[in-house]
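Before the break, one more example. Copy the sequence into your notebook; we will annotate it together after we see the structure.
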Amino acid sequence: MRPVDHREPGPAIALLEDARVTVEMITDGVHLHPALYREVTAGVGPDRVALMTDAMAASGMADGAYRLGSLPVDVRDGIARVAGTDTIAGSTATMNQVFRFAVLNIGLPREEALPVAVRQTSINPSRTLGRPDPTLAPGAAADLVIPDDELAVAGVLHRAPGWCRRSRCARERCPGCPDHPVLVLGAAHRAGQRHRLSRHPSRSTSQARSYRGMSALC
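Here is what the structure looks like once it is written out:
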């Protein structure tokens, strides 16, 4: 894509000004400067920005030699480049890293930055692809990523069963309460411990509330 010129602004400006366009940004900390992310989000609004990883085979892997299609790629210090050149060859970022970048670099207080990052890493991309809205709502799939205080992944729920709202169960396991998944959560994750949320709804509710400092993100 042509760079922006003061006399011929080019396609970048045309796309930013077109309300029909969702602007994709590779916010891996390598492709784009944080200031550009902030300016684009401020200019078009958070609902028109979709964040992506541009991940290739080395995503989440150690430094070393990889391939991107037919191209040999060297990964040094987590940055993928075409072997023997300075040309960036995709990214090694994972989506949780892209999410963290957004929260830390949007220039908003954390409580305001979190919902913006959620929209830009899940809701906006889903809408652009014509997929169902991933917002948490009654009857919707409970697909969640649970971050810890440092915004690292502490737990994942995929189509998790709903919590029973009864205050007490007449049986050890009431109808409609299937096994709840094992989660790695918060400080327990850092200590290498696993917790299973109780099958008993009343205990599950109090147990879930006891985990402090975590946010559930769709």
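The longest strand covers residues 71-76. Confidence is low (pLDDT under 50) at residues 163-218. Try to locate both features in your own notes.
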